[in-house]
Amino acid sequence: MFHQAWLPQRPMIWVSGGLFIATLYVFLTRGGYSSTLEWFTAKGIIPGASQQQLAEEAAEEVEKPSQPPPSRHAIAQLQTFITDMPVEHVPTWDPPYPDPAPAQAPSYIQRPTSSSTTAPKRRRLIIIGDVHGQLDALRTILRKIDFDQGSGDHLVLAGDLVNKGPDSDGVVQLAMDVGASAVRGNHDDVILRVHTDLTKAVFNKRDEHHYSTVHSLSDASIAWLSALPVILRMRIPAGSSSPPWNAGQLVIVHAGLVPGLELEEQDPWAVMNMRSLIYPMYEDNGPRTWALAEPRVLQEGEGWSTMWNRYQNGVVREDERVVVVYGHDAKMGLQVDIEVEVGESGAEVSSESKLELGKGTKEEEQDDKKDKNGKKQSGIRYAFGLDSGCVYGRQLTALILEAGPGGIMHRVEQVDCEAAVKPSG
């Protein structure tokens, strides 16, 4: 009876056993579960997507733009989070490329005809702080520095092109006219949010003071502002001998960055709004890591740029260091002195490890910033602040990067501004 009952099932067992052996063979020879599944799918044993479908899905995945991490605060929709500076805008000295096609700058910033015909070809990167609708000041500083598109000069605006000042649309139009790059600032962002609300017939009394700026902007200006990234980065060419320009990368943002946190992981809202960082203390009074910082809008804790300078001075390999140029903080004003104070906690940082800030009380941390003789330790600046309060009647600042025989170098130029608003606080 047992033998008769078992016989009819034997073919099924043979099939199952054969399938198991085949599966085991493919698993061992094809490199694991995913490869085995692909082999059976390709043979039609297991139903699945065709190779063409898989290829189409892979192509769609490549085409998807990288998305920023979710922000804890409302921001206008981003088209781009991070943009890489095209290589043609990297400063060079007598470069081995043909003369650029003549690009005629607008008449109001045209460079006077030079009497010298032997001046070396060069292209400069000109980064300007918060303009806030101060069109006259922007024109004046471009004339002062002899801005010349025809020689390859490229303008970058560090956010807050609009709002507060008298001619926001004029500033954006000039930026478009000269082919400028820019990053989105907190005021640019709020104008874009208000514009979106108004197109949906959503009116908010809290935003009434922004309505005049929104209505002054052309559709082209709104579209241009909407396309701005939050972070602009550029690879610094090798060969510069002077710090900080022997670093590996230049990053331009409006407000700030959290040290030790990858660019792709930064909160877009914080990059446009932060001024300082607070590091939470653990209950066991243990070490605090750099990337756990809590960005703050007000001056609480320690300035983010102070922490950035401290962190970068501790990065062991110079070509792994990152220079940041930013605006936003008019209260702190111009921050360009090449020598800064740093602490001991900036030691031994590498791309493979995340430095610990240290532990203990504030008094102990202050002691960490001094050497054995009780003197504060100095280092190199890696965060350059350019908001010098133009809209409040102070200055508009340009950081000019140019190349020479020793590599990249910089200088600072300023022009005076007429006040458009009174400073708050």
Features:
12 helices, 425 residues, 5-stranded mixed β-sheet, disordered N terminus, alpha/beta, 17 strands, Purple Acid Phosphatase, chain A, domain 2
Question: Overview of this structure, please?
Answer:
There is one protein chain. With 425 residues, this protein is an alpha/beta fold. It folds into two domains: 9-63, no CATH class; 76-112 and 119-425, 4-Layer Sandwich (Purple Acid Phosphatase, chain A, domain 2). Helix content is 29%, strand content 16%. The chain has twelve helices and 17 strands. It has helices at 2-6, 10-30, 33-42, 51-63, 135-144, 168-177, 186-199, 208-216, 219-226, 268-273, 304-313, 362-368; strands at residues 82-84, 92-93, 122-123, 125-128, 154-157, 181-182, 231-235, 249-252, 276-278, 294-296, 302-303, 322-326, 339-342, 377-380, 383-385, 395-404, 407-416. The strands form five sheets. It has a five-stranded mixed beta sheet with strand order 1-7-8-12-15. Helix 5 (135-144) links the parallel strand 4 (125-128) and strand 5 (154-157).
